[in-house]
Specification:
It contains 23 helices and 21 strands. The chain is of the alpha/beta class. Its cofactor is thiamine diphosphate.
Length: 653
């Protein structure tokens, strides 16, 4: 750096230092709610890392991210207003200290989950490369994150795909309350070398060293040399969080470390040695203080979010899709697997921002559904390692950066391996950013009992997903519906989990034309009836239709409703049917306890109470894991006979 550049860096660091000190004071005064983690002592990392960054470069950050977002260009007043929970904050008071974001500035968010920003950064880097503009991603994380699976999955995928991302580790020597040497048996540089990527080690107290080192790193990443890990050694002056008494640190040792590695002191001494006057430095320091004073005045004067807006920004606006006519009789009748392949191919043809990614998808996936798509769409059907968190994070980051990813989770049972990226990232980011972010991604997955797949490959887990606000959950029962729902899901601006039933893959139905779309959140009355309403979804719809035929022979006229979409739930269609039949049976493949059926039953005895002429009966699997032995599985799962028995029960009342 020349002296002017170093002086500029000193000014930026001074603003961050004064801001963090003010935040600490305000938090102690209860002017800032929640949790606060300050980065005092780490200012040179943020400013140096982003000194040569472009406006269109993207960053992901950590729970200790105030310095990063300020260094990327977020106004101090909007940062402080956000921390104080004000409507003028960067996220309209929805994010707070741990979740500050502004995608318009390339700030994809600080993150309250350790390591969670790393897979998102990989997705953003994939999108940056797809745009071919030479932009890069810098993903900040602390030394504690290297123990997380997200770190390893993200670095591995980035290395495999040679993505333009810098993994910037601020190593302050402590993972929350524990010393790094007590947490990590292998030094951080060795971890990166194991994935075949270069490591650059920098003095995180020296803003000039960090900026100069990062200039070269960013140039290399932009040239397509693949990801690079930077380890910057730094000092965390305050505790893990504001209020932490730091009993795990020796006070004298800490004071000595802070004195020796204060980035503002080191930079000030260097500027004086270069002939910069005390007066000039004092002016910069006064300007930093004035900036923070103005930010506090602005934040205190700002209004709180209107109480009426508490439920805003959970979902992106969804266009109204009218229910289309069913496909004409002359349309081809083919298997659901082929219809899904056609829907994916048509989506790839229609929109260059769509891409597919997942385990073995380029080769056709485990069921052959994507076979041939990679050859027809080079570079847009991408195999990934067996890294479910990285796959989901890839989808989140790429969607935030403007693409429309369709990522595959091989089995719905594997949801637990990657739940954070769906539950805490995809589902919440629009809300936590006050509507500034959209996450238009689709997660395709499949499930199904009935073929002795055992306890870890047979689970129907839609209730878990339905309980997460921000997600849309779709479960088609036919190939025709799968086409219309999948095309609508890919074009939707919300994260959609699209759950297919593998035992329906070879069931045949009409292949719609490419314009066919079905509305998300709209149920379908597949069989009108007058005596009892049977509500089902996915394969249970076929069982319900079989049951309805048996009941018809007994003089019972059953109406069968296919929910199609679990979230949003079409309460209106269900209640309208219930108002006519006054009896309800709910058929689900999942275990009955605590499931979607319980929500429907609650609806029947709540807003539908005056239609209730008999108890609502739920049909589903027994409350145990799925057995392996066929004889046991048949006892465990529910089918058409169980639905018939339930309908007879409610008709007898």
């Amino acid at each position: 750096m020349d002296s002017d550049e170093l002086l500029h860096a000193y000014g930026r660091m001074s603003v961050i230092r004064r801001m963090e000190e003010r935040i600490s004071t305000l938090y102690a005064q209860d002017a800032i709610p929640g949790f606060v983690h300050t980065s005092i002592g780490q200012e040179a990392c943020a400013v140096g890392a982003l000194f040569h960054a472009r406006v269109d470069d993207i960053i992901t950050s950590t729970h200790r991210g105030h310095g990063h977002v300020l260094a990327k260009g977020l106004e101090p007043r909007r940062v402080l207003a956000e921390l104080m929970g004000k409507e003028t904050g960067a996220c309209r008071g929805r994010g707070g200290s741990m979740h500050v974001a502004d995608p318009s500035l390339g700030i994809f968010g600080a993150n309250g989950i350790v390591g969670a920003g790393l897979p998102i950064a990989v997705g953003a880097a994939h999108a940056q490369r797809a745009k071919a503009a030479g932009d890069a991603v810098v993903s900040f994380f602390g030394d504690g994150a290297v123990a997380t699976g997200a770190f390893h999955e993200a670095v591995n995928l980035a290395a495999l795909w040679h993505l333009p991302v810098v993994f910037f580790c601020e190593n302050n020597g402590f993972s929350e309350f524990s010393r790094a040497e007590d947490q990590h048996p292998v030094p951080i540089p060795q971890r990166a070398l194991a994935y075949g990527i270069d490591v650059v080690q920098l003095d995180g107290a020296d803003v000039e060293a960090v900026a100069d080192g990062m200039r070269v790193v960013l140039e290399r990443v932009r040239r397509g040399e693949g990801p690079i890990l930077v380890e910057a050694s730094t000092v965390r002056v305050h505790g893990h969080y504001e209020g932490d008494q730091q009993r795990y640190r020796d006070a004298a040792t800490m004071a000595a470390e802070v004195a020796a590695a204060d980035p503002l002191t080191l930079t000030r001494v260097r500027l004086l040695a270069r002939g910069v006057s005390e007066d000039k430095l004092a002016t910069i320091e006064q300007q930093a203080l004035a900036t923070v004073d103005e930010a506090e005045e602005f934040a205190r004067a700002s209004a709180e979010p209107p109480a009426a807006s508490a439920h805003d920004f959970v979902y992106a606006p969804r266009s109204v899709t009218p229910e289309p006519a069913r496909p004409a009789a002359d349309r081809p009748v083919v298997s659901q697997s082929k219809i899904i392949r056609q829907a994916l191919g048509d989506a790839l043809d229609a929109d260059p921002s769509v891409f597919l990614a997942g385990i073995d998808v380029a080769g056709g996936n485990v069921f052959g559904l994507t076979r041939g798509l990679a050859e027809a769409h080079p570079g847009r059907v991408l195999d990934t390692p067996i890294s479910e968190s990285a796959i989901m994070g890839l989808g989140v980051g790429a969607a935030m950066a403007g693409l429309r990813p369709v990522v595959e989770l091989m089995y719905l049972d594997f949801l637990g391996v990657c739940l954070d990226q769906l539950m805490n990232q995809a589902a919440k980011l629009r809300f936590m950013t006050g509507g500034a972010v959209t996450v238009p991604m689709v997660v395709r997955t499949q499930f199904g009992s009935g073929r002795s797949s055992g306890s870890q490959h047979s689970q129907s887990l839609e209730a878990i997903l339905a309980h997460i606000p921000g997600l849309t959950v779709v479960m088609p029962s036919s190939g025709t519906d799968a086409y219309g729902l999948l095309r609508s899901a890919i074009e939707d601006d919300n994260p959609v989990v699209f759950i297919e039933h593998r035992l329906l893959y070879e069931k045949k139905s009409a292949l719609p034309d490419a314009s066919y779309r079905l509305p998300l959140g709209k149920a379908h009355v597949v069989r009108p009836g007058a005596d009892v309403t049977i509500v089902a979804w996915s394969r249970m719809v076929t069982h319900a239709l079989d049951a309805a035929e048996t009941l018809a022979a007994e003089g019972i006229d059953a109406e069968v409703i296919d929910l199609r979409t679990i979230v949003p739930l079409d309460r209106e269609t269900v209640l309208e049917s219930f108002a006519r039949t006054n009896r309800m049976v709910i058929a689900q493949e999942a275990v009955t306890d605590f499931g979607v059926g319980a929500e429907l039953a609650a609806m029947a005895v709540g807003p539908g109470f005056w239609s209730l002429d008999a108890p609502v009966v739920r049909v589903g699997a027994s409350y145990s894991p799925a057995p392996y032995a066929p004889v046991l599985e048949r006892v465990w799962e529910a089918g058409a006979a169980d639905i018939v028995a339930a309908a007879r029960e409610v008709m007898a009342c």
